[in-house]
Each structure stands twice: as structure tokens, then as C-alpha cells.
Amino acid sequence: MRFIPVIALLFGSWLLALPAVATEAQDWLRRLAEAERSQGFQGTFVYERNGSFSTHSVWRRVEGAGVVRERLLQLDGPAQEVLRVDGRAQCVSGSLVDQAADHQEWPARELNTLRLLDSYDPRVIGKSRVAGRAAVVLALSPRDQHRYSVELHLDQESALPLKSLLLNDKGQLLERFQFTRLEVGAVPSEEALQPSASCRPVRVAKATAEVVEAWRSDWLPPGFTLSSVTERRSPASSEQVACLVYDDGLARFSVFIEPLRGVMVEDARSQLGPTAVVSRRLATADGDVMVTVVGEVPLGTAERVALSMRAIAVQAKQ
To answer: Which of 46, 222, 302, 315 is in the most buried spot, having the most CB atoms within 10 Å?
Structure first.
């Protein structure tokens, strides 16, 4: 369900607020926030996960009124493409067509520093050099076992992220995003930002009030709150699937709720790199549903969230 899970380190709305008194790490986050609002660029980066690598081109332009347009194109393997405006997918191609539902399948680390500081400890831990550019290394260390560590290598000149590493509690690498070429300040042409003919529009709708009010979680990891609820058509049927997105100011996970209509499916659990996927069949007064939790959180955390989901109108049967 994922194309380049950590790309949103580049393309989320990085910061919403900063404490009045900033540490050195928060100063770099402040610079990063300003860069995200104002910097256009183009370049090439690699993405690594479970020993598998892919290469991608990116073009990003900040237009009038602060509108951000960006196009991403995978250069090897299956042809996959996405066009985004202000962080929302407008069209996708390749195997993403049946999977993309706005930004939910492109998880964004929309850094909210005031919230982030409750769950992470940000520190400047050194310097590095990436894509021929000097960088400062910023570590975001979790305060509990329900999230991963992030290491950011920020360009000293622009504060844009040149590299990011996602690490588990043992310090093992789960994902790597790293520029091999970055042209800061380069304004991509209109032609470069135009999607190919195979890029198909993404259709997603805000959930109705009934859907928003129909579900709750009896337990969430500390610091995580509900950030959005949408609906989209299931790629496997004509059913509408509710998608609840939770975040802690940095990490996020999605909960998909799909009516089964008598279809027999089994509970499942898996972990691919940092991405946990847990599916659980749940009986409700309106029939069985499949609850699936997907996100960059530890498997045990995703399992506990899946077990905690409840139908609000009528208590789910265990």
C-alpha cells in the first residue's frame, strides 16, 4: 500500500508552532519549517527498505499564495508517479491507482512541535555530508515503545532534509531516504510538473457525520489523536471503506474499516520494515467488518489499536 513512505518528511506541513524559548534542535526545526514554506527544488533520491532500493525524481515549486505543487516519479522498477498539491495527491499511476486515497497511503510526518515534544526528545547529534552538501544531524528519540526514532540530516544552507533514517528501539535501520542530487532554489518548469497520461485522478471524500461518529478506540498510544476521517471505495469490492488517521505530531497510522457482507476472511498480522499491518474481524449489529491498522508503528502497538476499535452505536461483540 506504500510507494515511498518517508517522502512526506519532505512534503508535509512540518511545523505548526514552536516554544518561545527554542533549543538548538528546535532552531533547526524552525529553519526547516521556513524552508518547507518557501523553497522550491528538484533532485533525485533513493529509498531503501528491507534491503530493497528504488530511485525517484522529485520536482517541487512554491507558487503564489504559498501553494505547493510537487511531482514524484519512480525511475526504476514499476512505473509509479504522483502529483500533489498542498500535500494532497491529485493523481497517481502504476500499482498505486487502486490504493491511493488522498494522503492516507502517503503517510505524512506533519511535524507539530508542541505535540512532538511530549513524545520525542529532539537533539542535534553531529554533522554529515550528503549529496555533496554539508548537513546537521538531528535525532528525534521516542519517549516510549510505541513509536520509532527518526534521524534527520538537514542541509546546512537551506535546512531541507537531505537524508532521513527510521530506526527501531535497537538502533536497527528500518527505512532510509537519501538525496543523491539536490538543486535548491531551482524552479521546475511547468512541463516537469505535468503528470503523464497514465496518472489517474484520486477520488476521496470526507466521511459523513454518521461514519465519523460510528467508531471509537478504547485505547490509543499516548500522544496520538484522531486527525482525519475519510471514505473511499475498496479496491477489492464496491464497498465504501472508512479511514481514520491518527498522529502524534510526527508518526501516524491509519485504521481502515470495511464491511464484509458475508465474505469469509481471517485475522492477519505482518511487519514489513517499519510498517505494521494488523487485520481483525469484528462483529457489529450491522454485520461483520474487517478492521485493519496500517502504519509506521511497532507491531504490538498496531495490534493493541486493532483490538481496541469499537462500534459506538451498538457495542461490538467479541
So the answer is: 302
Query: Are residues 51 and 156 both part of a single domain?
Result: yes
Full domain range(s) for residue 296: 204-311
Q: Are residues 176 and 236 in the same domain?
A: no
Given a cut of 50, whether residue 105 has pLDDT beyond it is no
Question: Is position 189 within any domain?
Answer: no
Q: What residues form DSSP beta bridges with 196?
A: none
DSSP one-letter string for 155-211: ETTT--EEEEEEE-TT--EEEEEEEEEEEET----TTTTSPPTT-EEP--EEPPHHH
pLDDT band at 30 (very low <50, low <70, confident <90, very high): confident
Domain boundary among 156, 184, 212: 184
Task: Count up the domains in the chain and report the number.
Answer: 2
Residues 6 or more apart whose Cβ sits within 8 Å of residue 212: 229
Whether the pLDDT of residue 158 is over 90: the answer is: yes
284 φ/ψ sector (left φ>0, alpha ψ -120 to 50, else beta): beta
Strand order in the sheet with 133-142: 120-130, 133-142, 149-155, 161-167, 173-184, 41-49, 52-62, 68-74, 81-85, 88-92, 200-201
Do residues 239 and 250 lie in contact, with contact meaning Cβ atoms separated by under 8 Å? no
Of residues 140, 134, 135, the one with CA closest to residue 109: 140
